[in-house]
Inverse folding.
């Protein structure tokens, strides 16, 4: 790959950017951006209307053969680069950039700013990026994260404010490449929809494309497949199923969210996984390791309220379809305890056995949080508690809170 990079800019840009500077930069760039992209950073189809039929034929030839062409980077947004091929305008998506052209992944950026990515896991939904969709690396959710201690972050920013700051720094980093020329592949040239996309990645072979189509046609959600671990990334594990790439997202690796996949598994290891999603639009396969294992390990749970009998059998994940006042009240009471930093509901389960009374089980400390299971009938609610109390202190607190609400 040819790329004329000289003096690559630093990625460790500060969090705080002067509003006036940002506004000035946006104003100075606005004229150029209006010509090519909409407010979301997408290339306007009108910019492609002047492409002739012979040009489309040439572009389609490039797309089918994988021949590389030289383009100029003429504009950018957090989503990628607007590029020019001769007089034709197209788009080079961020996910199609080579690694060394990319800004810091969101989790890495957040850690450098003193934030804890685990606090935002539920908001960082993945239609995966990079190999998966832009926002597995750059999440799109704008749900507010409440009651979270951000440590050394300058203020308790809402999640959408963090994303806005992240995208501003990312765009500033990408803008430093404007004007450079590089060789890329045409991955989509659609004259009907007026779409022209490029990629720095090599074109997939026809054999792999056909193999993926064949495999996805045979698979069903819920199937158990044998796969080989190929690569660890911060958002999960890349594997191959019959030679076809697939992704196991971080939260689908283990019931224990603190587990480091690179410690528990190794490159080349063969494992069984469950198919949880087949994305035919983007030709992607998503798997789960934890769904082929009992969940959660209940043998080490200790009764706080109720008898000492362990939970019978394995727990089946389910969707809570009713209100559980005892659990809600327990959570609210725990939040009022000074030493308790955070309390929130985790997963909901159905138990094979029945509990005749309200029971609470507590596991040992995992990372900075205790895992508590509240049980009644065949319903089991996971509750995560972050506290400075030791195990015995938390047990006493749970007993006290339960007495108040019962």
């Amino acid at each position: 790959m040819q790329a004329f990079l000289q003096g690559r800019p630093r990625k460790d840009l500060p969090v705080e950017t002067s509003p006036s500077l940002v506004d000035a930069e946006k104003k100075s760039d606005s004229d150029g951006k209006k010509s090519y992209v909409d407010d979301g950073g997408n290339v306007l189809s009108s910019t492609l209307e002047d492409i002739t039929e012979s040009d489309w034929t040439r572009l389609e030839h490039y797309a089918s053969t994988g021949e590389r062409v030289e383009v100029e980077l003429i504009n950018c947004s957090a989503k990628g680069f607007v590029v020019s091929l001769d007089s034709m305008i197209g788009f080079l998506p961020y996910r199609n950039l080579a690694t060394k052209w990319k800004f810091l992944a969101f989790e890495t950026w957040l850690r450098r700013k003193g934030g804890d990515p685990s606090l935002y896991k539920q908001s960082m939904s993945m239609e995966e990026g990079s190999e998966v969709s832009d926002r597995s690396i750059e999440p799109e959710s704008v749900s507010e994260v409440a009651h979270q201690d951000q440590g050394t972050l300058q203020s308790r920013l809402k999640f959408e404010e963090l994303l806005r700051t992240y995208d501003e720094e990312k765009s500033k980093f990408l803008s430093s490449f404007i004007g450079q020329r590089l060789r890329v592949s045409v991955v989509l040239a659609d004259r009907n929809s007026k779409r022209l996309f490029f990629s720095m990645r090599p074109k997939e072979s026809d054999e792999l494309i056909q193999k993926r189509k064949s495999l996805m046609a045979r698979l069903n959600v819920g199937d158990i497949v044998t796969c080989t671990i190929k690569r660890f990334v911060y958002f999960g594990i890349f594997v191959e199923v019959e030679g076809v790439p697939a992704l196991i997202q971080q939260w689908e690796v283990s019931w224990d969210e603190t587990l480091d996949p690179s410690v528990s598994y190794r490159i080349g290891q063969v494992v069984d996984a469950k198919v949880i999603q087949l994305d035919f639009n983007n030709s992607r396969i998503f798997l789960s390791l934890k769904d082929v294992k009992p969940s959660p390990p209940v043998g080490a749970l200790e009764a706080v309220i109720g008898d000492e009998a362990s939970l019978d059998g394995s727990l089946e994940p389910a969707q809570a379809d009713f209100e559980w006042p005892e659990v809600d009240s327990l959570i609210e009471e725990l939040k009022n305890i000074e030493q308790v930093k955070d309390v929130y509901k985790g997963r909901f389960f159905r138990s094979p056995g029945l509990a005749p009374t309200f029971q609470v089980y507590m596991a040992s400390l995992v990372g900075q949080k205790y895992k508590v299971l509240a049980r009644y009938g065949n319903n089991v609610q996971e509750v995560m508690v972050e506290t400075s109390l030791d195990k015995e202190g938390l047990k006493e607190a749970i007993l006290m809170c339960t007495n108040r609400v019962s």
User: Anything to note?
Assistant: The chain has three domains: 19-199, 206-292, 302-405. The CA atoms of residues 303 and 361 lie 4 Å apart.
